[in-house]
Batch of 4 targets.
Target 1
Amino acid sequence: MIGSLQGQSSASMCKTSAPVCNQGQPVKTEGNFSLENGLPEDTVDTLIWKGVSSPVLLQWAKNEAKVHPHKKSNDLTIEKDIKDIFAHEIERKILSYVVEQLPLAVRHAVLRFMQHLVEKVVRLELSSWFDAVLIFDLCYQKGKIAQEAIPVTCVAIVAMLRKADTAQELVDMTGMAFEASTLAEYLGSLGLHMGAEVSARDVVEREQELLQILEWRINFTSVQKWLRSTCDRFNIISRGGLAQSLEWVFQQGTSSAASYLQGVSSCERWRPQQMANGLFCIGLIAARLLPLESMRPTEVAPQEWEELFASSQGRQGPVQAAYLPAEHLQHMFHTLQVTTGCNIAQLRSDCYDAVLAMRDVQAAAQEPHAATTTFTPTLVPALVHQNCRHAVALEGMEMQATI
């Protein structure tokens, strides 16, 4: 069904879409998890089939609250449940460690090394790199990765992800140990204290230690997974009318998240869901599907907001106006809330945080001797705004049906 929706033109989808939900009804925030109340039955079925239904998102949010209890919480419908988890985990003092962050050069080396392992050694998808980075950051934040254990920890994390991905092939632990020793040699050249050469037995033992640290859970939801689910949900709810644009938003957001994580831990500022929300809104603005002003926090002046956004995109000058007609903005807001499970105030906050983060990334890239990275995910071709394809998609659109 998804493929058939994406194969249709945006203009044709505008004319045939069924209503998303009752116009003017707020997203429910109490009782049962009810984001999808009012959606057409086939839309709900597609969300379930795609693995992005609201119960799945709720479970991800609950799990995220357990491992990031010190971060502010999004309002994914049953906010009380998440806040209860938040309070409970604080009481248990989970993530109460005060850990000095890795030197930037070391972090760059670690992330590039894990990219090499994921892409070249065990041949997993790009999403596994984000999973590996998140697991590394969670363990490091807990104070469970000593300097000399960094190399063996990296290979053990990737080995676990490979085993979780498939049981049909064995992981070459001897080869993984050799890779860890190579990283240890490089980190030693940066001044870090490294232990003895890593053996296959060391990798196996480290796997067991990490599983205990993580309480035998490695299926955490990375920013890339949140972003993928958000784009998929929006695409399904909008009946595929903006599929190509949403894929571009996903690719741009993935690239931005990768650049951000090169210099900042997944655990330092915000939760992966919040980062994904912010990058999704930035992508919609950049694709001219959402007005920049609509995401401006009330405490930020219009001119300052426009300058901040432009700097986050690495350019100067005014931001191009959205194709979205002003009278359809409330329908867009409603679909954003149904898609993310967050109210507009929270989405504005997440978007603002993402803009600041990407501004910092752009500034760091301009600094002399800025560290380079080999992380270059393939991006789909940039949207050709000159042909007003979005204008065609939005012109005459029944907004309660597609946006």
Note: The chain has two domains: 10-61+221-402, 104-213.
Target 2
Amino acid sequence: MTPLTRRQKTRLKEDVDASLTQAWEELDRGNFNNTSALLQDAAAKINYYLAPKYDLSQINGHLSLHDPTISSSLLRGFQILQVMEKSHGPLGVYEIGARLEMPNSTVHRYLRTLAVVGLVTRDPVTRKYKRATWRTPQ
């Protein structure tokens, strides 16, 4: 893992401090659900900066995203599945986007599509996704 730059460290501290401050405020109000969500958000932000980054331009040594004979959209969906496969648990949109350096809106759109076809499932409580057990129809 490459060390964080001073700018990344500053941004990480600001992001995590903001989430933790909000979490304390919610805790003082007795709102435990929001507190839990804000603490998870702080953890996701830490993971964003510490997670390994995946090189979107190369798959199996080929410059696939720039090859006009390969569907870059389909390839990105597979890259999301690959990140999820390597994960030790469910991942949120923010975490996947950070690892792939892909916009959250794009990740969300791909995850919704993958969920529709049954390749991923979404936990309605945590709002995180995991790979589904998928079998071909018989």
Note: The chain has two domains: 6-50, 64-131.
Target 3
Amino acid sequence: MPSREDIVREAEARLGASLKHKWRLEAMLGFGGMASVYRAVHRNGKRVAIKVLHAHLTADRTVRSRFLREGYIANSIEHPAVVSILDDDVAGDVAFLIAELVDGETLEQLRAANRLARAQLLHAIAELLEVLAIAHHAGIIHRDLKPENLMLARNGGIKVLDFGLAHARDVHDADLTGPGTLLGTPHFIAPEQAAGRWNLVDAQTDLWAVGATMFRLLTGRYVHEGSGTQAVLAQAATEPAPSLRDHLPDAPEALVVVVDRALAFSKADRFEDARAMRHALEAAAAACGADIAPTPDSAIAPVQREATSATRTRGWVPAILVAGAAALVVSNLPTDELSINAGSITPSIWVSAPAPSPSAAPPLASSAAAPRRAPVRARPAASVAASASASVTVPQANPLDRRK
């Protein structure tokens, strides 16, 4: 496997190059464990984001296939908060996706800058749950929800990035969900996902990740903060999550109930589905002084388009946005190499704003500083962010063995 430095040099060398004699790569927006994201311009002047799978991974048919099918999954969900993939193609040894480009910031970036009010967070999570209600009904499980994959666009709307690790009901994932394989980001995976019990990974697994995302954004901490990937996985697979109350003692009880129930160790104790969690979130928002308008079931009904082509676009004026990267499987790497070679400890790598360490992370701004009906608006972003996810193949020791 090439070193990270070699992969970066290879990615930078593409700047100025042309793909298929029509897309010119103007600037690098992001770099991750499996792909680089560029701002590109078509010969007709249209600007987009192009995500290019690293060359050494393009030769892997399983990885390339999953990378290219991200668009088919994302485009099958009819909701303006889901990114559109405009096209996919392979040129020589370069597999790439063409996506919209967004001038915005991720929720993690806003949290790190202490610019995410509680009202904004609750509105964003409510919209995310609308997306999940539709996706889950269609048999699509995201499997990699986290603050870095949720972007607040300049126009105030939330964007759900990176369906590269998503599972679709009609797609066979055996090559990437075998024994000893982990898909997802360690700090945001549910107990059944951490243990590799893929027969139990479903919509409620995504809801656990929503709870972990809220926990991170509200407290500045991760649910499990072990020293290294193996420790975090063992904790996630065997230990219940702490209560939000333990780290945010002044939180309204209704908000604590929402987060704690989403993070329940047993699936039987979690919310039944995304709609149920959203209804509970409405009550929590009211307790926080933030209004979330009740959404009738018809507004989040499972309306979906036929996923026959990644080139089909939505029937709304596109925002400019970039989707995340597809799956990467890293086999039997020591924990310290994961963060260096694959970016799997912090899979989202930002060119302009590296994330601070957990110990230095400020807590979420209180909603008291925000007006009661605060709209979900992002401050103008200094740059465009790109998301990249990774999958990790864990050494054969099972985290569940820690119970002995």
Note: Residues 172-180, 301-404 have pLDDT under 50 and may be disordered.
Target 4
Amino acid sequence: MAAELRNQLEAQLAKTPVDDGAVLDMLKRIVEVPMTLELLKATSIGRTVNNARKADGASQATKDLAASIRATWKAKFAKKPSPAAAVAAAAKPTATATAAASPAAGGAAGKERRASAGGGGRKFEDAIEEIPKYDDRFRMNVCKMLGKALFNKHRTLRVAPMEGALDPIKTAVSIEKALHNEITHTSGGSSGNDKHKKKLKMFVANINSTANPDLAIQILTGKIAPEKFVGMTPGEMQSDEMKKKKEEANVKAMNDAFMAIKPGAISKSIRCGKCGAKETEYTQRQTRSADEPMTTFCVCLKCGNRWRFC
């Protein structure tokens, strides 16, 4: 009976527009069918009734009846929890109840989660309000640029849970003060000069470098003090891995230079550090920048020892 009514209803719903009277009559007949969960699953009649609720051309009375049938079946055949599950659900406190019972604990947990994300849960726009107000606009810009770089690294590298973690904005202010002191007092320059701008650009680039996250971590955990940081060269800021690669490249370049040299001059005054002989062949090459002295490559003609000096 239910399967037959479903087929007839589907045939009516396939028409455009639908015969509203016929659809309404079939829905009334469906209401009279003693429906069971097994019958509902076997015939899929619930889906067809739901389609009648949305049929084009159906009257409001038809749509309301289809919705009523659907709601009745849904309430009647909704899956009910087992007695054991019902007892467990009743005993388990909800998240809302837990938060209401202990708002302080919930707030502390949320605050801790935000802090672990970096920057103490603040937005950068709010955090920069902590920067001191200087009359010097350039100094203010330095604080903001360093603050933004350190604030973002504090968050992305999750520095907050680390031992000795510092506030990124306060750290930026300390670095700016050290840099300003280094430029104006130690170097005898003025705020905002070319050297000041060049150093700022170099600092921000190295802090933001994705290839060297250890630098930002060491700054934000106090392992590199602001006074030390502003005096560091780009080479000193490099990661240990990069320094090792650079050293290996220098050694390779030196060996290549040794292999490439042509017969050089003979010296009777350069003493071999290995055998003590003063029979040395040497040549000179410009291996560094033009303003640096040339490098002298030596080969002992007696024992074959090789060395270099500047």
Note: The first strand starts at residue 265 and ends at 267.
